[in-house]
Amino acid sequence: MSIGGYKVMFQKGITGGFAPPTPSVIHHLAVNDDSTTLTITSLIRPHGQPQPIPQPPKALSVASGDHAASLERLRDILSKIPPQFPGADDLYKQDISILAVGEGVVPYGTAVARNLQPPTDEQVQQFNQAVDIVNRLVAAAE
Predict the structure, then answer these.
(1) What's the farthest any 2 CA atoms get from each other in the chain?
(2) CA–CA distance from 29 to each of 69, 75, 99 (Å)?
(3) What is the chain's pLDDT, residue by residue, as a tens digit (142 residues)?
(4) How many of the other CB atoms lie within 10 Å of CB of 118?
(5) Which candidate among 1, 9, 21, 76 keeps its CA 20 to 30 Å from the CA of 15?
(6) CA–CA separation, 130 vs 15, rounded Å?
(7) Whole-angstrom Cα distance, residue 123 to residue 57?
(8) Hey, is 99 helix, strand or coil?
(9) Contact predicate 55/64, CB 8 Å
């Protein structure tokens, strides 16, 4: 199954309260259409700073091997577990959102998650695995 065109948004810092969430890390992962390269663009907010700072884009070859398998596993997980939207209740209790995105639109807020069932223990483990996959891919990118 091709992973070409696959896009994921990862956000650390999704809970708020009276004020909206203040993300500390946002990663956008995008596989090019021919499934050879993963491009990662990131925003990282230094501790104590109000705004995240754009980081230089990173690229990773995903034509074959472990990185391609990791992306396929990530897509499989995200297609099966309840989505964790930024700005919604923290279903997985990690203050992290990971979403497969399409057309550049990311649903936001509590209204989009209103009818979601809480995740099972197995789904929580799968979410944790998805977090690990994203973190490994970001760390491996140049």
Answers:
(1) 45
(2) 15, 12, 10
(3) 578 888 999 999 988 767 777 899 999 999 998 889 999 999 999 988 888 999 999 999 987 679 999 999 999 999 888 888 777 788 899 999 998 876 544 555 444 556 667 889 999 999 999 999 999 999 998 7
(4) 10
(5) 76
(6) 19
(7) 31
(8) strand
(9) no
**DSSP conformation class of 5:** T
- The tokens describing 94, both together, are 């990690």
**6, 100 contact by CB (below 8 A):** yes
* Two tokens, residue 15: 């809970």
Q: Which residues contact 83 (CB under 8 A, 6 or more apart)?
A: 99, 107, 113, 116
Give this prediction's pTM. Answer: 0.88
Q: How many residues does the chain have?
A: 142
Which DSSP category does 105 fall into? B
Beta-ladder partners of 61: 37
Tokens of 70: 């990791």
